[in-house]
Amino acid sequence: MPAKPSQDQLCVHVESLIITLRGERVILDSDLARIYGVKTGALNRAVKRNLGRFPEDFVFQLTVEETVALRCQSGISKRETGAGPMKTGRGGRRYLPYVFTEHGALMAANVLDSPRAVQMSVFVVRAFIRMRTALAGTRELARKLAGLERDLKARLDVHESAIVGILQRVMQVLAPPDGGRCCLR
User: Fold this and answer.
1) pLDDT of 28-45, one tens digit each?
2) How confident is residue 95, by pLDDT bands cut at 50, 70 and 90?
3) Which residue of 5, 21, 120, 168 is surrounded by the most CB atoms within 10 Å?
4) How many domains does the chain have?
């Protein structure tokens, strides 16, 4: 019997499902449904029944282009023949997927109102928080690196002008004042 995953392992697993689209960190409806222990269709129907709780900054539907790009990167089922933007033959998605932001994922747990969804929403929120913290650290590091780059450039400019001055003096010493004729005879 496999060991029950720890809280950290669950957070790391959920983090691996979070992607960045349109500048937002989001999770696919199919991944969120699997975490919450429901079918994707059930999750999306619950959202549609409660549209007032899901503004565009909580949940949005992907475009065909975004879906194709994700299919190339992940395990979204391939599009086959048929009608509609995502109609497929066997298996796979029939419609463009939805993605949920952190707030949308939490709201989805509330509208599903299942014990598993409520329990797992804690891990989803923690995963988003861990990612936000890591991103904040990355931004701080980038800011510090930009400052170091500015300082280094300023120092190089000072050193460059000093080197140019030294080279000019050396050239003056090497070049005789009378146009190249040597007066030592």
Assistant:
1) 999 899 888 889 999 999
2) confident
3) 120
4) 1
Burial class (CB in 10 A: 0-12, 13-18, 19+), 89: exposed
Q: Is residue 122 part of a domain?
A: yes
Structural domain that includes position 93: 7-140
Q: What is the pTM of this model?
A: 0.59
CA 10, CA 99: separation in Å to the nearest integer?
20
Measured at the CA of 66, the angle between CA 100 and CA 122, to 5 degrees, comes to 20
Q: Strands (DSSP E) along 7-157, which ranges? A: 18-21, 24-28, 59-61, 98-100
Residue 127's nearest CA partner among 19, 37, 4 is: 19
Say if CB 99 and CB 54 are below 8 A apart: no
Evaluate whether residue 156 is within a structural domain.
no
CB 68 within 8 A of CB 85: no
